[in-house]
Amino acid sequence: QETEDWYKLTGMTPMGEWGSLRLRMRYLDDLIMPCEEYSPLQQLLLEPELYAVKALAELCHNDRVPLATALLRVFRHEKRETELIRILCQAEVARENETTTLFRGASLATTLMDLYMRAECSGFLQSAVSETVQRILES
């Protein structure tokens, strides 16, 4: 639940000297169990055909970013993240009738690719374009 509201600040200095402060906070109450409690779920998610992952993709369309983040964490821990992305992308290609609309929708596959690229490729992107950007800024 997200709440947006203004709260009065009090301090030692006179009110005329105060600036303003606006915060956006998010409180999340999660129950985190011992790792061994997650083992059956992990085994289910890591099955080679990814049936559970595909079912979650269909059920959790509105929550695909948290789902993708959690799945990527699980699969990266097992060094199987490329397998996850490959299988979901293949399923999306098989499901799509028009090649012009491939990977345009907000799907679990595209969200996973986006998160993975941000995590793995930001250093490469910086090194690849930083010199060019610097020359543009200096000219």
UniProtKB/TrEMBL annotation:
Gene3D superfamilies: GTPase Activation - p120gap, domain 1
Keywords: GTPase activation
GO molecular function: GTPase activator activity
InterPro entries given in the database record: Ras_GTPase (IPR039360), RasGAP_dom (IPR001936), Rho_GTPase_activation_prot (IPR008936)
UniProt KW Calcium keyword: no
Domain of life: Eukaryota
Matches recorded under PROSITE patterns: RAS_GTPASE_ACTIV_2
Domain Ras-GAP: 63-139
SUPFAM superfamilies linked: GTPase activation domain, GAP (SSF48350)
The protein's name: Vacuolar peduncle
Organism annotation: Drosophila mitchelli
UniProt lineage: Eukaryota, Metazoa, Ecdysozoa, Arthropoda, Hexapoda
